[in-house]
Amino acid sequence: MNTTQDIVTFSLKNFVILGIASVFSIAGFIWPFFYSGKDLPKTQLFFWLAIACAFIVVVFEISNARLDAKSVALLGVLAALISALRPLGAGAVGIEPMWFVLILSARVFGPSFGFLLGIISMFASALLTGGLGPWLGYQIFAAAWIGLLAGLLPRKVRGKLELLMLIVFGAIAAGIFGILMDLQFWPWALGANTQLSYLAGGSVAENLSRFITFHFATAMAWDIPRAIFTVVLIAISGGSVLAALRRTHTRAAFMTPVVFSERVK
Amino acid sequence: MEANRCLGYRISLTCIGAVMIKFSNVSLIYPNSTTTVLENLNLEIQEGELVLVIGSTGSGKSSLLRLINGLVPHHTGGILAGDVSVNGVSTQMVKPGGMAHLIGIVGQNPANTFVADTVEDELAFGMETLNLPLDVMRKRIEETLDLLSLTSLRNRSIATLSGGEQQRVAIGAALVTHPKVLVLDEPTSALDPIAAEEVLSILHRLVHDLSLTVVIAEHKLERVIQFADRIVQINGDGVAKIGTPQQILLESPIAPPIVHLARALGLKEIGVSVRDMRRMTSEIREGAYVQQPTREASIDNPIITIDSLSLSYAEKKVLKQISTNVYAHEIVAVMGRNGAGKSSLLKSLAGIMDGVNGAVLVDSQDPQKLKGKNRRETIGFIPQEPSDLLYGQSVSIECAQADSDNQVAAGTTLSVLNQLVPGISLHAHPRDLSEGQRLGLALSVVLSGNPKILILDEPTRGLDYQAKNELTRILIEFAKATGKCVLLATHDVELVAELARRVIYIADRDIVADGTTLDVLLSSPAFAPQVSKVMSPQPWLKVSDVIAALDNPL
What is the structure's pLDDT at B1? Predict the structure, then answer.
């Protein structure tokens, strides 16, 4: 039966490409633990390019046929909203009011939409805040996966339980985002000679313990406030924002039957 | 059959023109609904025709317009029986995107549809999406600027344009792709009478000069009726009637004031323009009648005192040094061009405006300092967009919230609402209601607080005649109670004629006229209601005035 266009959803082929892109990206994050050379490599640029290319492939693939006007409009409006919210924190410690919108939107519109929204909003907000730099590729990847995972949370949960689930997810996501951002930055952060520095060629366990100490030493400033802020925003506004987004979903009439017939009754 | 069809055309040429839009046996049902919006509609619109679609709110006017380019059902879902075709292309076969070069659409609020910042960029946008070559785009922008007299505005930022200019830009943006059909959904609802005139005369010219086919839905019939070649009247039950304005308006419950005048006078024919009606009623005008005594303004203490009030908005002076009073039982209309400062004045009375200099007293209190319950019991303010007051998830939640806010018995707001707009669905989201229902809901939320003064900013945009009559009744009822008054800003001269006792006209940052409705409205041809234009120089504003005078000949 004919229906109106569905909200953007990835095909199997998209997921395969997405998987390849993600492997690249994950390698971009965790290479310090498996690198055996003695000197710091110039790998950051390589991985950044790899991530960028991979995501360009993904975006092209998706926009081929699956994005119709309604999905584009929704993506555009929400990405603009998120991008506008990001500089509101103005670099103050961890005040990043963007995450809750991303998580709630992905919850309502699904994993594929959340993934795209993460990519687009992170990129657009970087243009706005002037935050273009080697870290951007990592940030985009992290935001996209937070969107995807938020969309994959169990769909049946509703009401108070749903809000609780999103709060927990928000806290974890904010924390993981912090860990990932630390990870991409850590090998270059402190110079070679401190107790917390990356030890090129060191064992996985050794570097892991150094990284974890490094992370928690710096987390107080950024990650914990970010998590608290996200959780509080979801708790306060989650109910009404979810309701507004769900209403948008209904009004946009995704996947509604279109029937041309002889008679209507 | 052929002859019958031709009856509809004033210009015999269009009779042999090509069929541009064809509805054959069209019926429509939306998803999750059991009622047909349109039933067995057959309609042929010729090239170069201007067709007006009328019907009460929710009758399916917008559905009909959106069927033309296939947005219904391709975008909304639903079951469509029969066939709609434009220039021989069926919407069954081609999606809305494929019709983009054929059909231009203009909505009620152009600001919602603008993409670019400046006039020229906005005009170019539609052609960019159709991937037209650059030299074609440049040429078409120039011709469109000329066609719509936008040349002097080409580099202006759209946000700084007046409502009429914005609507013209929106029409221009729809025309650059050289569509064969232009579809407009209430293009003049938000405009003042002069800006509306400006937009409609442009449409009239496009139809006559370019033989463009135009389909308009509009509530304010008095503005468009004289331009229409034919009318499609949609009844609530999905059945549509098609005919010339004269045929349709003879019986239609939806009719502009001059048609009501013609009916009240028992004329056999109906004139759709002031000129036609004046020709038919010259005898009545020339008679002599007993002058109705004008009621004296009340002289008790004023409820609202405005003393040398100056307002500035975004560092621009909006009003300077105005003084006036409003007394009990008064219904005062504030009129003036778009951007004259009507809204600013009302906001300063409601105490929600910054940049206020001078004294404003409402019930001998400073509105800026009113708080909480005291505020709700003194001032009821309905902003231009009534949904700004509504933030509940459903009508019943909204009503319950208002009950507890105003500390009145549960169900009070709901009973007010049922009086205002009966038959409203309690589970509906406030933003899914029709304009009239939404205004009714906001009004009942405000009225349940039992305020002393009621301030309404443009209450009638998007309201049909029925809802407007209801609003008139409610406001008159409200102003009758002790110590109450109503202030409203509006462009709707017909509403003012029916409702207001006094008119304050604002222009050039000052009150240029402040007097009885009769004096102010009759002094300006642009703001005169239809009945008074027909009956001038007799001082009658509305149909009931004419009838009352006819009952008392000298």
Answer: 38
- Taking Cα atoms as reference points, which of B439, B347, B428 lies closest to residue B387? B439
- Continuous segment of H or E residues that includes residue B374: helix B372-378
Q: Which pLDDT value is given to residue B461? A: 76
Which fold, B304-523?
A: Rossmann fold (3.40.50)
What's the order of all strands across the beta sheet hosting B356-362? B316-326, B304-313, B356-362
Note the pLDDT of residue B442. 93
SS3 B125: helix
Q: Which residue stretches of chain A have pLDDT < 70?
A: 1, 37-48, 50, 54, 61-66, 89-94, 190-193, 220, 264-265
Least CA distance to B78: which residue of chain A? A258
Instruction: State both tokens at B123.
Output: 């005009």
The residue among B347, B359, B346 whose CA lies nearest residue B310 is B359
Residue numbers of A between 226 and 255 with CB closer than 8 Å to B: 240, 243, 247, 251, 253
DSSP assignment letter at B481: S
Among the CATH numbers 3.40.50.300, 3.60.15.10, 3.90.79.10, 1.10.3110.10, which is that of B2-20+46-56+90-277? 3.40.50.300
User: Between 2.60.40.10, 3.40.630.30, 1.10.10.10, 1.10.1760.20, what CATH number should domain A12-251 receive?
Assistant: 1.10.1760.20
Residue B224 token pair: 């468009």
Q: How far is residue B226's CA from residue B223's CA, in Å, rounded to a whole number?
A: 8
DSSP structure string for B227-266: G-SEEEEE-TTS-EEEE-HHHHHHH-SS--HHHHHHHHTT
CB B325 within 8 A of CB B362: no
Residues of chain B in contact with residue A4, where contact means CB-CB under 8 angstroms, are 73-77
Please write the tens of the pLDDT for every residue from A16-33.
877 887 887 787 777 777
Contact A70 B75 (CB under 8 A): yes
**Which pLDDT score is estimated for A167?**
95
Listed as ranges, residues in chain B with pLDDT below 50 are 1-15
What is the SS3 assignment for A264? coil
Specify the pLDDT at position B52: 96
Cβ–Cβ gap B429/A240 under 8 Å: no
Whole-structure pTM value: 0.83
Question: d(Cα B521, Cα B539) in Å, to the nearest integer?
Answer: 10
The residue assigned the tokens 């993934």 is A115
Interface contact A3-B77, CB threshold 8 A: yes
Instruction: Encode B529-541: b = buried (16+ Cβ within 10 Å), e = exposed.
Output: bbbbbbbeebbbb
Q: Are B459 and B482 in contact (CB under 8 A)?
A: no
| B2-20+46-56+90-277 matches B304-523 in fold | yes
CA A228/CA A242 separation, integer angstroms: 20
Dist. CA B171–CA B110, nearest whole Å = 9
Contacts of B31 in chain A (CB under 8 A): 253, 256-257
Distance CA(A202)–CA(B34), nearest Å, equals: 71
As for the ipTM of the complex, it is 0.74
d(Cα B354, Cα B348) in Å, to the nearest integer? 8
CA distances B60 to B64, B132, B232, B234, Å, are 6, 35, 11, 7
Give the pLDDT score at B193: 80
SS (H, E, C) B74-122: HCCCEEEEEEEEECCEECCCCCHHHHCCCEEEECCCHHHCCCCCEHHHH
